[in-house]
Amino acid sequence: MLIIPGALLLSxxxxxxxxxxxxxxxxxxxxxxxxxxxxxxxxxxxHTFTGVVVYLVFLILFYFILQKIVSxxxxxxx
Length: 78
Hints:
Layout: H1 3-30, H2 43-76
């Protein structure tokens, strides 16, 4: 079966998507001039915070998507 190769490919693609989200979020928060819009924290802390939030959101989102797919398969099986 193709379960393991498919899971590896899916996880690789989702990792790339999450990293694009992290980079985009950081660039949006730092603004055009490279000065953080959130002035209370330095750039390193902002980058770390952005990564934590983005990865957490992606993990929760993918969990609910996979849960829905699995429940649909259980309901449709005879």
